[in-house]
Amino acid sequence: MDASTVFTSPRPALLRAWHGLNGVVILGLLGTVLLRKTVFNYRTNGPLIEAKVAAVGGAVSTDGAVAVAKLLRDQMWEWHLALGVALAVLFVVRVVVAVLDPELVPFRAFARAVSSFRGLPSAARSTALHPMLVKLLHGAFYALLVAMVASGLVLLFKDNLGLAKEAVSPVKEAHELMMWGVAAFVPLHVVGVVVAELRGERGLVSQMIHGRT
Ligand code: HEM
User: Ligand 1: residues whose CB is within 6 Å?
Assistant: First the structure.
């Protein structure tokens, strides 16, 4: 696939593939967070392990049971790290998409919407406001993903980077906090697309699947 054949439709194949994979990876990352906070929560699992070992006639200290619970959680968390690296690779792919077709640079659609909004008479502005805000939201989500990937990579390579605990701690807090932004965007995005289709903006889904409406 060379650039001339890939970038001929309104939604190039590479962008559509990126979008699908990005969605799967983000859902996977959110899934690992959900598992960490629920099924693999060491605070719940520690006492469960301790009780079960005692019930079958064995003995394990409270600290030992918690260590086992954390071990199991950490094995599951390897998925977060693998998916995190996949998200970082997808970020590079998205940069390639933007380099091949500068029209697809994130925020460009928003910048275009703002300049056409400015040129509109005030009576027409109310209808143009919503699409402009949608494009702003998309741009903000791109920025959030960049921050998520950057902070995730810092956490992943903190030892290699020789970072002190005090330097890592705010990065981790920011990474955790931004998770809520990602978690909020996913349902908002899906509901937004469904509502737009129902309101007559047909073809958004097919455009993202086979490139044209
Ligand atoms: C949608 C994107 C992401 C979400 C929602 C997300 C969410 C989270 C959350 C909530 C935590 C804190 C878990 C806890 O301590 O309770 C975390 C930690 C972490 N994340 Fe992510 N993350 C994302 C992307 C990434 C990426 C791109 C990477 C790396 C390339 C990454 C690597 C890490 C690492 C290394 C930790 C620290 C684990 C630890 O201290 O044990 N994450 N992430």
Answer: 26, 29-30, 33, 36, 80-81, 84-85, 87-88, 148-149, 152-153, 155-156, 175-176, 179, 182
